[in-house]
Design goal:
This protein has six helices and six strands, in the order H-H-E-E-E-E-H-H-E-E-H-H. The protein is an alpha+beta fold. A six-stranded antiparallel sheet has the order 1-2-3-4-6-5. The chain is globular.
Length: about 130
């Protein structure tokens, strides 16, 4: 499935928000490559850098999800946006939301800009090194 096919397959009231978030991810992090693939029991748009999962965008039954691994690895970013995006439901590495009131695009762009500054690939490589 292509990204466009994925975006047009979701509920019509979600298409604009997910399409806008997709564009913001590509705009704020030029290193990512996007593809649709399965994760956590559902298809989603996965954004990877050199094979490492960085972001995910999904339409679930009752909500949409933005997975942001840099936020998972950077507590200050997580804390900042969990306070700013009060209507959304935060987990360690993802944000669940139902509409643009819960995920305003200006704050989403700010979050993704902050996430793009974090070298997620370096963090993963550090954890892959054998412990002494």
């Amino acid at each position: 499935m292509t990204i466009n096919e994925y975006l047009t397959s979701v509920e019509s009231e979600r298409q604009q928000l997910l399409s806008s978030l997709h564009k913001i991810i590509l705009k704020t992090n030029k290193k990512v490559a996007a593809e649709v693939g399965p994760m956590m029991g559902t298809d989603m748009i996965q954004y990877k850098i050199n094979g490492y999962f960085v972001y995910g965008l999904a339409s679930q039954k009752n909500y949409m999800s933005l997975h942001a691994m840099p936020m998972y690895g950077c507590k200050p970013v997580h804390d900042k946006y969990s306070k700013l995006l009060k209507k959304a439901k935060f987990q360690k590495g993802c944000i669940n939301f139902k509409n643009s009131d819960e995920m305003p695009l200006d704050l989403a762009e700010e979050l993704l800009t902050d996430c793009a500054k974090i070298d997620w690939e370096a963090i993963i490589e550090k954890y892959k090194k054998p412990k002494k």
